[in-house]
Description:
The complex is a heterodimer. Helix content of chain A is about 35%, strand content about 25%. By secondary structure, chain A is α/β, with parallel strands linked by helices. Chain B is about 65% helix and about 5% strand. The two termini of chain B are about 20 Å apart. The interface between A and B is medium-sized, with 39 and 29 residues.
Amino acid sequence: MGILEVKGVNKSFGGLRALSDVNLNVEEGTVHAIIGPNGAGKSTLLNCFIGKLIPDSGTVLFDNQSLLGIQPHEINQLGVSRVFQTPEIFSDLTVFENVIIACFAKRDGAFELNAIVSVASQKDMHEKAKQMLIDVNMIDKRNEIASSLSRGDKRRLEMAMCLAQDPKLLLLDEPTAGMARADTNNTIDLLKEIQAARGITMAIIEHDMHVVFSLAEKISVLAQGTVIVEDKPENIKGNPKVQEAYLGGAH
Amino acid sequence: MLGLNKKDFGLLTIVIILTVFAPFILNPFPEGSALAQFNAGYPDLMQRLVIFGIFAIGFNILFGLTGYLSFGHAAFLGAGSYAGIWMIKLLTLNIIPAIIASVIVAGLFSLIVGWISLRRSGIYFSILTLAFAQMSYSLAYSVLTPITGGETGLQPKVSDPRIFDAALAEGTTPRANFFGMFMNDSYELSLAGWVFTFNVGYYIAAIFMVIAFYISIRIFRSPFGLMLRAVKSNQQRLNYTGIQSKPYTLAAFVISGMYAGLAGGLLVAMDTQAGAERMFWTASGEVVLMTILGGSGTLIGPVLGAGFIKYFENIVSKINESILQAWFSFMPEALQEFFVAIFYPFIGKGWHLTLGLIFMLVVIFLPGGLMEGGKRISDLFRRKSKTDSGSGKVAPEAAE
């Protein structure tokens, strides 16, 4: 049984049917990519996972719990972390503060008025944040202000923040969009390392075929709001349905 | 020490020393000299310096950390004042119940206002808080007159119940006290030409300010404070990190409301009166100016801003035309007239014009406020000493 199960999801905006009967099953411990041409409904589908949109019908189950209609912070606390298209970090804080916030969030939950203790006295959280920065190879930049980092480093920082929460599922929304080739390859290596070391389940939404075929163990192809193929990468490339979807056979 | 790191403890020590020796520091000029009008070492002004310092420290916890700009904090100051004066009228002339009640009432009031206003952010939040404050002001003037005294405000009277106190003799004025020490009692020390005034009320307010400052350092350095800064930086990421921002912003709002209430209670303790004008929007605007002028988001900036504004308000308002004429009397008459005419709009009642100009200059040239100015000057000196010695690494320091 999958950790993330999407069953019969439909979503329309006015007369436009963005998603029609989408079924998807992300197995625990795997890297699952969702690809598709522009306008296929990838972002709409992602927004259904994270509480931004509620589908007209269908279910989205994570660990046998419905993700529909609950707040982003509740989804996160269930164990879903999200990496954004443009890295979302606390840009006016230091790299270290960014990560330790994620550590506190994991420990304290949605709200805790712990104004009596000082951040400096929380040694275990310091250790954890440091370890996360070592894992993503950012420890020497820990005192830099996050906004001064390069795009690739911002992505690393965001990954460190997500990993600090020990997520069961990592959602990645075009993690290499707008990156230079070197940064893209770095990110791929980083994701591979993380996957190898921790075995975190990842669901990646991506345009870049290079990224998808380097990482994914399973690929779902989305076209015109529905999953047309779900298969292993080696079978996807030669699939005539996929070629048709990408090369515009739909017209 | 006291749960602070070395640098913060140093900062706290400096604040303690400054407040203890303020009667000396603020009175640098001998009595009767031409510059004596720049002295600020009299009780009324010193009390205001520390009380508005508390107000600004609290405001900074909301605005400096979370970035939510409240334009209605004077409402909490006013609510605290009314709560305080009622304690003085009903219970006792001892200031302690008054101060406790003012903090509690302001806290509850800010909980309601914050709970509603924090449904929105940005400009809408500011407008909502402003609307609440102006509503409170209008209510205090009209419908709530039985509680607030309307235009005349509230003062303690000999005939008040004061259930804990012995009755006062007819004709005496009720004076607020702290276990027998009257707020307006002062000890004057004459040294050569100087006269230094040590006032009971000032030192009590100063103790409260030091405690308030200490608590604000602890909040700044706590995980809670870190979360507040995260709210300012990126709410979206915070939510996707499993944190709900509203309880944090509401807690910050209530804490800063309680600080405002404390300031209101202390104002009542010092001058034993409360009026609706304390809730007027200009009073809310003033604390915003203090915080930005001093440096919002820094620990000590708001205190400096409050001191700066209250000091110059008093000094500049006191200057009148004849003083100006005396200053320029060394010039030929035509020039003297000219300079007096130029400076006249900026003094006395024109103080707000001066404040406006200073504020514009600071915001344009020193966006980080007076703290940034201080940092730039110290950087300048450090760079100089660095080039002099030709070596040594300069560690960048935060402006806190």
